[in-house]
Structure formats: structure tokens, C-alpha cells
Amino acid sequence: MTDPTTTTGLELAPIIVAIDGPAGSGKSSVSKEAARRLGFDFLDTGAAYRALAWHALELGADTSDLDAVVSASADFDYAISLDPDQHWVRVGEADITDAIRQPRVTDAVSGVARVPEVRATLTSLFRSLATGSAKPGVIVEGRDITTVVAPDAPVRILLTASPEVRAARRSAEVTTQDAATVAAALRRRDASDSTVVDFMTAAPGVVVVDSTTLDFEQTVNAILEVVRTETGARYGR
Ligand SMILES: Nc1ncnc2c1ncn2[C@@H]1O[C@H](COP(=O)(O)OP(=O)(O)O)[C@@H](O)[C@H]1O
Ligand SMILES: Nc1ccn([C@@H]2O[C@H](COP(=O)(O)OP(=O)(O)O)[C@@H](O)[C@H]2O)c(=O)n1
């Protein structure tokens, strides 16, 4: 009998696990590890907003000017790896995997993310990247995945943590700025991002995982447990 999973053109669409949450809640790192363990792909949507902010800065654009951001997005040649073991982000020939984490990009990204044309374009891109995955599933993480990008995903999670814990996690990563500066930037960005999408409260049907008192391993396990429950034990632990 023909194996249904290898029939050309009739492959099943990957299952989408949508994860939203504020900065420093653990979305990227936890999603990447959970994807590895599930044998899934992983799509960091914030990387695209950061890459566009980087691109606009390279062009010398004012990222608080909507028209300038829209112009910069016109020749935005973006590519990202969905493989959790080989993460890279490119614009044109430039590998900007590390550059998009620079504080100057972090400070500019909310300005780019509030532009409706940019959100519409990137939302379509995220949908086609996720559905084009050859793996059985994709974990897609960001701010509006459970509500806008993939509201029909079978698994939808809001990953939260207290503001103090999130600021402490982020400042442990950023060595070029003091803890107070990192915490203030994170608060500012969350406040600005919240005016565009509500990622602090769970939409109906979205499961909350609060990682405030969980370590990294416990958080990954909590996500895998939700995946197991929501997929009727098809995936997850
Ligand atoms: N539950 C956790 N306990 C401790 N540290 C964590 C936990 N989850 C994530 N981290 C660490 O916190 C930092 C921020 O996580 P990250 O995945 O970048 O968050 P986000 O993508 O939500 O901004 C990373 O250094 C990560 O390794
Ligand atoms: N789905 C998404 C993902 C990110 N973003 C924007 O992109 C920025 C960077 O996202 P990120 O996930 O890399 O941020 P961190 O939480 O990792 O710091 C956010 O501050 C938002 O402005 C968004 O608007 N919608």
C-alpha cells in the first residue's frame, strides 16, 4: 500500500503551535527547544520585524516615520531558517542573525511594527513560511500569532512572566547596557507594542503558561504538555 505521508502533492499541512507573549517571557528560546524535541520547525516572527528595522537603519531611514518605513519595506529581501538547529536571518547577502539583537535595532523595532502595511505583508509571509514547512509541525512565536497570524491553530499559548523576571532575564543577556537601562527599554517597548496588539491577555481558547517561577527546562516541559493535551496526545510529552 502507498505510504500516505509520501504521496506527491498530498502531504498533510504542518500542525501550527502558536505562541505569543511579552519580551523576555522566553518565547524564542523555549519555542526553539520545544521544536527540537518535537521534530518541528520554529519560526521567530520578531526576527522579521527586527530585520526590517535593521534594514531601515542601514538605509538611514527615520524609523518613527511611517512613510519612510513603508519605503524601506519595498526592497526588503528577507530570508530566515526555520531549522531550530541552524538558526540564521538574512537580508540580501548579509547575515544579520546577531546584528538584529543590537540595542539600536531593539529601540527602533516598535516603530516599524506599528505600520499596518508592514504587519499585513509580514503576516502573509509568516503564513506561507509556516505552511511551506516540510516538518510535521511548526512552532510560530511572536505577539499576534494566536490572534492574527494563526487564530485557527490547534495549539495556542500565551507565555508570560512577571515584569521583574523578564527584565532580569533580558539584562543577563545584554552585556553592553546596565540592568536599569535594559529594564527601562523593555518596559518602553512592551508599552509601545501593546498599543498595536494585546499580547498581555489571553484570547478565548488560548492557554496561559506563566514561567515566572519555572526554570527553562520546566517551561519547555510545560509547553510540551500543552501541545500534548491540545493535540489529543498526538504530539508532545
Ligand atoms: N523559564 C526560564 N527561566 C530562566 N531563564 C529563561 C526562561 N525562559 C527563558 N529564559 C532565558 O531568558 C532569556 C530571554 O528569553 P527569550 O527566549 O529571548 O524571550 P523572548 O523571546 O520572549 O523575548 C534567554 O536568555 C533565555 O535563555
Ligand atoms: N508577531 C510579532 C512579533 C514581533 N513584533 C515586534 O517585533 C519586536 C521584536 O520582537 P521579538 O520577539 O524579537 O522581541 P523579544 O521579545 O525577543 O525581545 C517586538 O517588540 C514587536 O514590536 C510584532 O509586532 N509582532
Automatic annotation (TrEMBL):
Keyword flag tRNA processing: no
Domain of life: Bacteria
Binding positions for ATP per the UniProt entry: 21-29
Enzyme Commission (EC) number: 2.7.4.25
Keywords: ATP-binding, Cytoplasm, Kinase, Nucleotide-binding, Transferase
Subcellular location: Cytoplasm
Domain Cytidylate kinase: 17-228
Pfam families with a match to the protein in the record: Cytidylate_kin
Entry GO CC: cytoplasm
Family statement: Belongs to the cytidylate kinase family. Type 1 subfamily.
Name of the protein this chain belongs to: Cytidylate kinase
UniProt source species: Microbacterium rhizomatis
